[in-house]
Structures are given as structure tokens and as C-alpha cells.
């Protein structure tokens, strides 16, 4: 008996010491993580640094009384009704689009809007369902029963003398009694343990056969609730073989769990000797000791018969009435969603679903906008002359264009590659009337706010150096390209043509002359970009439609800070319009150690992507 007690004490001390030692190691490791942060003042660039590229562009002096037609890239030209040199009147048809492509696009946009609306409807239904989930902390459990009085002795009997075993007598192998309930297929998240309450001292005891499988949802529940369990494995003859001790770690990640079988990696030979394959991923500690059970702890070899009274069939001293006990009151549907997730896990699921709905609603706005744009394109398919004049240039219909492809290629070979292109080069049709000249320049989508009708621009000749001013008369509604080629511009912006009438110095400029154009803004333009700054884009993390940085708070701990952003320059800098200060200290917001609450340390090293140079 003494040997048994000493053996059990040793096992308990070693097991408990190992667990708490591991826990202390993980806590110390977590405390030792320090993340480098850099002052924003060391990496930011003021918005004024980019003003030259935002407000300056190039232009061309052309005949003011002219009409240029640029092909809608979403359409094909079905027919052309004029030819070069032909005189036209205002209202004459110039060309006609093939509406088949337009109608197909319109149908696709309508279908896409319906799909997104359906996805939003389904996501909202799923959200309402998640809100009805019952947390695992509230799972019903059968009442604990005290069977001590049924066998005629208390927990610590004083009137019974246990027999002493001779010193030279070896203890027989202690085989636990066959379990009353045993899992033969899958250990599911909704379970009723044979014993235990999930603590280290009293883990959940779950009995199963060698063919049983442990579900990942069961492991997720243990990790979420920080509970311990022993998966006790029995043979087909209900003989105890071994157990898996499961103690979830503090930094366990839910996506790391998978279904696993209790026999994975275990081999038992004919002599009963077991071996383990360490190459198999293990989710617990293998042990051949007896289950952590009150019955096993109290069991003594050659125990005398101390039962001196029959068990009370109806009620014990604790007041529990066995006749009123109904197992259905404690039944948990193993295939249901109740009691599967912890309260915190349910909150996380709700937040994720709400974020998904928000992103879908933003996507729906985009799809509806594109649908309205497609509807505008669906007109009669014809373009008409807007002035009286002569056709200076006209392109070919889509079918005819293939026939002249070789001729155009020969002309291209004879062209001067270094000659600046004319605004007419990109136009499909040009009609010129009589009188005057105007300035035509290109502007990106993000800078349209500084090019309103009535705004004044400054012009400067490339050839003569002459300067003058012009007033913007209009901006084309259709872009000439869907990207910008300026190295200082966001490449995802469309490019539009701006028309302006020369108001000062008109005699110093001639048609066909190239000029520099400086946007000075409209009289009512009160915009001010001095409050915004630019920082390296890799220091900003995108989350759906939102952007955030990770910065050090007043306690030198990392915290998430959402920011308001603007345009992207060179693909390397992003404009920050709010949510950041030059005094803030931020870190590279990626990596396993970058988490809210982590300790920070100030550094002067600004991280840069490979093969990229920043100048500060």
C-alpha cells in the first residue's frame, strides 16, 4: 500500500510540475516579446512634397472650334458614316456602336447586383442564427452523485482498518473497471464526461475504443474554455490500454486543430508492448498510467468486503432523488450548434459576420454604380456632329480595322519614336470648324477637383518659353484611358481631357504648340492638403475597406489605430488624412509577434522593401 501511495504521489508531482513549468515558460516567453516601433516623423513626407506632380501636367494648343471623338472602350464601332475631308453639319451622324456588347454587359451587371443582394440576405440570416447560439459555458451537466453511503463508509472512514501488505509482496497490475459508457465513433464538442469537471486536478474523463476519432470542434471547445481532458482508450475486450492527456496551451490557435484518431501513431505488439511514431502530429501527451479517477485512486488490492448495507434506491443523504432523474433533461444534440462555441468565440463569429455584411454592402454600392453606368451607355448607339465643319480625321469600323492593320504597322515603322504625340492621335474622329484656339491637357481622376469649369490655369510654351493664362471651359465625361502613365500618379486612376480658352497671351501661342499646364484651382476651392502626410505604404494594413496602423500607446504597448487615407503615390507611399500624428511611433504591422498589448521598443530603423530606395 505504501509503495502504491508513493508511486501515485510521484506521478502527480511530476505531472503537475511539468504542466505548471510549461505554463510558466509560455508566460515568460510572451512577456519577453518586444516589437520595434519607429517615430512617424522619421518616415513621413508632407503633402506639399507631391504638389508639383498633382497639379502640373502637359497640354497642347489646338483649334478651339473643334470636336474630338474618343471611342468608348466598352463598345465596338459597327458603322462609320463620314470620311476625311467631308463637310458635316451639326446633328449629322458620325458613327454607330454595336449594341450587342453593351446589352450583354448590362445583363451581366444586373445579374451581379442580384448575386450580391442575395449574398447580403443570406449573410444576415446567418448572423441572426449565430446570435441564437448557446455558449458552451451554459451547457447542462448531470448532477454529481455521491455514492459513498451506498457502500457503508464515508469519504475518510475512521472505523475501518485497511489490511497491510507484506513488504516482499508485489502489487498486481491495477486494471480499471470497464467503463459504463464508451465512445465508439467520434468525440464531439457536445459531450457528457464519465467523470471530472475539466480542471487539471479533475480533468474530463472520456472513454473510447481504439477506432474512435476526436473531432477538431471538441479540441476547439477545450481550448476556448481552457479545460483539460483525458481520452482513455480501451480494447475491444474493454481492457484499458492508454490515455491521451490534453492540456491546451495559452497560445493555441483555433485553425491549427484537425480531426485525429486516438490510435494515430500508436502500435501495440503481441506481447502488449506499445511504441509511438513521433513523426505523427500529436495533440496530447501519451500516458500508460491509470485514468485520473476517484474509483482508481480509492481502489486497493485484496480489499476486504466492507459493504455492510444496501444502497438507498430512492434518495441519498445529499437529497438527490434518483426516481426524478431524467437523462433527457441533460441531453445535448451532438449535431447541433448549441454549446459548441464559447461565449467569446460566439462574439468573434458575430463580429466577423458583421464585417462580411459591411463589405458586401460596399460591394453592392459599387455594382449598382457600374449598373447605372452601363444603362447610360445603352442609348441609340450613334454619335453625332456637335459643330459645323470638316472631318479632319476618322477611324475605321471594327471589321474594317483588321484590313488596314498591316498598313498602320508599316506607317508606325516609319514614325519618329521620339516625337511627342498630338491630342488628335488618340481621337477616333476629329471635326474642325472656324475660329480661335484652345488648350487641351490631360488630368487624372484624383485631380479633377482642381480642374472645375471656370478655374484658371497657367500655361508655358516648350518652344518659346512664353507664359499665359487660360480659363477651363469643360472636361470630357468619358476618360481617354483607364490608368495614368505619370510616374508620380496613382496608376489606377482614369485620365480625362480638359479644355481651356486662352485669356491672356493668346498671340504668343500657335496651334500645334506643346505647353506646360499648372492647375491653380477654382475661386471657390478652399481645399487644404497641409494637414495630410505620406508614409510608406507597407506600414499600413488594409482590413476590408478600412486601413489601420499599429502604434505604441502611452504605456508603450501596441494598439490598433484606424486611419483615413487618400491617394497612393508611386505604389510606395500612401496619403494619410487623419488618425496619425508625427509624434506617434508605429511598427511594421505584420508578423506573429505584432499583437495588441505587446511591448514596444523605439528604434530609428525604417524598414524598406527589397530593391527599393526611399529618400528622407
TrEMBL record:
It is found in: Cell envelope. It comes from the Bacteria. The keyword Coiled coil applies. Residues 295-312 have a biased composition (Basic and acidic residues). Residues 343-377 form a coiled coil. Keywords: Coiled coil. Residues 291-328, 400-422 are annotated as: Disordered. GO terms for cellular component: cell envelope. This is Conserved domain protein. It comes from Ruminococcus albus 8. The lineage of its organism: Bacteria, Bacillati, Bacillota, Clostridia, Eubacteriales.
